[in-house]
Design brief:
- This protein has a single domain, classed as 3-Layer(aba) Sandwich (Aminopeptidase).
- α4 (about 100-115) packs parallel to α5.
- It has helices at about 10-25, 35-45, 75-80, 100-115, 130-140, 180-190; strands at about 5, 50-55, 55-65, 85-95, 120-125, 145-150, 155-165, 175-180, 190-200, 200-205.
- β9 and β10 (about 200-205) form a beta hairpin.
- It starts with a strand and ends with a strand.
- The protein has a 7-stranded mixed sheet with strand order 1-2-3-4-5-7-6. It has a 3-stranded antiparallel sheet with strand order 8-10-9.
- It is an alpha+beta fold and about 210 residues long.
- The chain is globular, with a radius of gyration of 17 Å.
- The longest helix is centred in the N-terminal third of the chain and has 14 residues, at about 10-25.
- The chain is about 30% helix and about 30% strand.
């Protein structure tokens, strides 16, 4: 199985895989399903890759270029320029392809391409706080937690951001916060940067 570029030609296969994954999820809140129209836009933005096994799509990851007029723009949550922002919008890995590191590898490939694109300075993603594999994956890729709030009609989400031109690590005295200490996150998260997940704790630095 190798990672390949995918386009809108793969739309039906992506939507079918999304539904198969969703049906098998115990915590369905972890996946914000994407509509056919939105998925078509993502696949048209030229920042999507996938993995096939015996002609079946078993993984995909896509970045999405949001309109500056988009409602609930994530750039507002991260405090950055909307016009220079792209989202890490969707990562899907079918159960039969898990354990092979595809989510991270696909992210690496897309990020390498993105850093050559002078249209963007900011990569932003959202992750459900209890989706530990996705959170670890995003932090490993270089994104950092810059806010935690309710999104998508009242669902808890970490807002993660990467400065594509100057992704420095924060300095100062770190603090360790339990990964499920939502009271702290909702009160203080916007003033801190989360960089690592170790033994059930997130390492935060004051902004």
């Amino acid at each position: 199985m190798e990672i390949v570029k995918i386009t809108v030609d793969a739309l039906d296969a992506v939507l079918e895989m999304q539904e198969e994954i969703y049906e098998q999820m115990e915590v369905k809140e972890a996946l914000e399903r994407i509509s056919r129209e939105e998925m078509s836009t993502i696949l048209t933005d030229n920042y999507s890759v996938g993995v096939y096994s015996d002609d079946k799509l078993v993984a995909m990851r896509g970045f999405y270029i949001p309109s500056v007029d988009e409602e609930e723009h994530l750039a507002d949550d991260a405090g950055v320029d909307k016009s220079r922002t792209i989202y890490s919008e969707i990562a899907l890995v079918h159960p039969i392809a898990r354990g092979k590191g595809f989510q991270f590898k696909m992210g690496e490939i897309l990020l390498k391409e993105l850093k050559k694109d002078d249209r963007f300075d900011h990569l932003i993603a959202t992750v459900m706080p209890l989706n530990i594999p996705s959170l670890k994956n995003s932090l490993k890729l270089g994104l950092k937690i810059v806010n935690t709030k309710y999104k998508y009609g009242g669902k808890r989400r970490h807002i993660l951001h990467m400065d594509l031109r100057n992704n420095k690590n924060p300095v100062g005295e770190p603090i360790e916060v339990g990964f499920d200490d939502f009271d702290w996150m909702f009160e203080h998260g916007k003033d801190y940067i989360g960089t690592e997940f170790v033994n059930g704790f997130i390492t935060y630095y004051k902004k």
